[in-house]
Design a protein that fits this description.
Helices cover about 50% and strands about 15% of the residues. It is of the alpha+beta class. The protein has a domain of about 80 residues.
Length: about 120
C-alpha cells in the first residue's frame, strides 16, 4: 500500500496528514480525501507523527548553523556584486556632457594647447 496519496483519491479509513499545512484528516470510513491532485497526504497514525517530530526538530537544529552560514555567504556575495557593479558603472564616462550642444564641433586638445601657447606668448 502506498503511504503517499493525493487529494480527491478514494482511501480507506485511517489518519491522513496534509503535507502542505500539517492538518490531520481522520477518515472514519472509506471515502474521498479533500483537495485537488496537488494536495498531498501521508497515511500515518498519530503515534508515528508524534515520534517523527523530535527527529525533524533535531535535523533542523543540526542544519540551522549551515543555513545561517549559507544565508550570510549569499548576502555578502550579493552585496559584493552590487558594489562591483556600482563601481564599474561609476567609472564609465561618456566623453561628452549632455547639457552642452557642440554645434560647432568639439574642440580638440591640440587646438586648445595651440591657443594656450599663443596666449602665453603675447
Amino acid at each position: 500500500m502506498d503511504m503517499l496519496t493525493k487529494g480527491g483519491q478514494r482511501v480507506k479509513a485511517g489518519t491522513y496528514w496534509n503535507l502542505a499545512n500539517g492538518n490531520r484528516v481522520q477518515m472514519e470510513e472509506e471515502g474521498v480525501l479533500a483537495g485537488d491532485a496537488k494536495t498531498r497526504y501521508i497515511k500515518a497514525p498519530a503515534v508515528v507523527m508524534l515520534a517523527a517530530a523530535p527527529v525533524l526538530g533535531l535535523l533542523f537544529a543540526v542544519f540551522l548553523p549551515f543555513i545561517g552560514i549559507a544565508m550570510t555567504v549569499t548576502l555578502v556575495g550579493r552585496k559584493l556584486a552590487e558594489g562591483a557593479a556600482s563601481a564599474a558603472a561609476g567609472s564609465m564616462s561618456f566623453g561628452w556632457r549632455p547639457v552642452e550642444a557642440y554645434l560647432a564641433g568639439r574642440k580638440k586638445k591640440e587646438d586648445r594647447a595651440k591657443k594656450a601657447d599663443k596666449g602665453a606668448k603675447n
